[in-house]
Design goal:
Length: 450
Amino acid sequence: MDALRALPSVHQVLELAEAQALVAVHGRALVLFAVQRALDEERTTGTIADPAARMARIEALAGELRRPRLRPVINATGVVLHTNLGRAPMASAAAQAAANIAGRYSTLEFDPRTGRRGRRHDLVADLLRYLTGAEAAAVVNNCAAAVLLMLTALAKGKEVIVGRGELVEIGGGFRMPDVMRLSGARLVEVGTTNRTRAEDYAAVITPKTAAILKVHASNFQVVGFTESVEIEALARVARHQGVLLLHDLGSGSLLDTAAYGLAVEPRIQDSLRAGTDLLACSGDKLLGGPQAGLLLGRAEVVDRVMKHPLARAVRIDKLTLAALTATLDLYLTQSMAELPIWNMLGTSADAIAARAQSWQRSLLQRGIAVEVVPTESTVGGGSLPGERLPTSALAITPRPGRAADLLRRLREHEPPVIGRIEQERVLLDPRTVLPGEDDALIDAVVAALA
Ligand SMILES: *Cc1c(COP(=O)(O)O)cnc(C)c1O
C-alpha cells in the first residue's frame, strides 16, 4: 500500500517531455488514456514500474490501439479462396476503382443524364445481363443475404422444396433449414441424402408451394450411389406446375473451370440458360471480386425481390459497387490474366516449382538450406470441394517438435506469413503468394529461423 503512494499522478506523467513527444504523435486524448491505463495496471498489480519502463508501456498501449487489426498477410497456404484471409484478392483495377470513389461524391443513386434519382443496383445491371444472359440483375451485400432476401420476398408463408442432399451448412452457422425458417418460408424436404429424382419434387407440389430451391453443394461431395436432379429437369417440373425455380449457386463462376484443369463447376450462365428463374451467387468466390451477392434471373422476379423492404437492409456499398464494376469489366474484355484468383488457379505446376526453387536459392544465399517438395493446393472458400491442384512448396524442416513454433513465428512476422504443417515440416506454397511478395516472404523465413 505504501509503495503505491509513490505512484505519480496522471497529470505528472503527462507533463513529462517523453509523454509530450507522444502527444505530438498520437494526440492528447489517446496518450491520456494510455497513461491512465498504465497507472491502473501498476495499481492493480501493486508494483511500481520505473519511469522508463512505464513510458515504454504507455507508448506500447497507444501504439497498439492505433495499429490496424485489419492488415495484409502473405497467404502461403495454397488455399486460393481462403475465407479467413479475405477470400478472393481483388484485381488491381478493382482496388483502384474503389479507391477512386471512396473519398468523393458519386453517381451512386443519381442519374446525371436526367438529374433524377437512380437505383444503385442498376449500376452493374447492364454488365451482368451482358455477361450472364440474365434478363435482369441486382446486387446485395453477399450471397447469404441474397438467399435470405430471395426466400423472404418470394416464399414467406409458403412452401419451398429442397432436396435432402442439399440442406447444407455453408459455414459460420449459415444452415439452409435455419435460413429458410428465418425467411418465413416452410421447408419441404424431398428425396434422400444421396438420391433425389424429379418425381420426388413433382409429388410434393401443392397450391401452397412457392418454389423449388436448388442449393449447390459447394463445400462437400457425396460420392458413390448418388443421383441429383439437373436444372433442366427441375425447370420443367417448376414450369409445368407453376412454381418458381430458385438456385443458390454459391461460388458463381463465369468461366469454364474444366479449361483450368479443374472439376466442372456449374457456371452462372448455364444455370440461367437451363431455366432458373432466380439465381444467387457470391462476388468474392470464383468471380474473383469484392464481397457481394448477385441476384440474376427473370425481370419480374428480380423486381419483386428488390422491392421488398429487406433489400434496403442488405444493400450493397458504393466501394463494393465500384470494385465489382471494375471486376466485371475484366470479364467483358476477357482480361482474365488480371484476375488474381484465375491467375493462381491457372499457374502451371512447372511455373510454381520454378518459383519455389528461386526462393530456395535466395535462402541458400542467406545460409539457409530448405527443400522443394511436390504437394497439392486447394481451391477452398466453398468452391470445388475435394479439388486438388498439383503444386510445389518450400519445405522447412525445423528441429524435431518445433514445426508449430516456426509456423507461429512466421505468423507473428510483419507482414504475417501463413503456411501449413505437413509431416513435421512447414510448407509454403507459392501458388497463393502474390507477385511482389517474394522478398517479404524470404525476409520472414530468415527472421523466423534466426
Ligand atoms: C458461399 C455460399 C453462400 C454464402 O455466400 P457469401 O457470399 O459468403 O454470403 C451461400 N450459398 C452457397 C451455396 C455458397 O457456396
